[in-house]
Fold this protein.
Amino acid sequence: MVKQGHYAKVSRQKKQRQLKQRHQVHEQRALTPDAVVEFLQVRYHLTRAKRQRPVVRKTMQRFVALWLTVAQKTSPNWSVMTVTKQTLQQFNRQLPWQGYAIISQAVMDFQAFLVKEVPAVPLERRLTLGDTMTEADWKKLVTTQLAVNALLGLVNDLSQITNAQIAQLQAGLMHDDETVDWSRAANLVAPVTVMAPDTDAATKTWYEQLEKLSLKYFD
């Protein structure tokens, strides 16, 4: 008769083999760090694109791609506030005000996507996400960038722009109910928006689509 201890030993060995096999499968499925941006772009498209109008989809695709590229250069610990601020700075004066307005409508949903998806990315060293934004945080970030863009259109030198000048313009970009005054933003930013000489045809077409959007689109 085979002793009960033998069954226990065989059972332990079987469990160990199963654990090893699952670990090997996990390793095979794990992404390399340089695949993270594309992976999350695809996830965002799959989970959000069907609910977005074409111009919103195109704008958010650009924003998400740039945001993730900036984040990937930081560290495994992504700060939403820091990466968002740096992403807006990279768009700078080249993005029409309508682009900032579209992003404003979708950015909190994008953050919800990040909170859910980033920690779940299959990496050997998992990503972490912190320093998330409130709506008030976002409004401060976007109005600061719009104010900087307007001032850069006047002096074209960031070193000549003071915090007091930014704060003054920023205050004028907000309604009394703490919502962004896109009419004021349009008046300030549209005249100083520029297009880089090396802008590709697809980006030019996107900019043209944005510039056709009137204030009524954002009511």
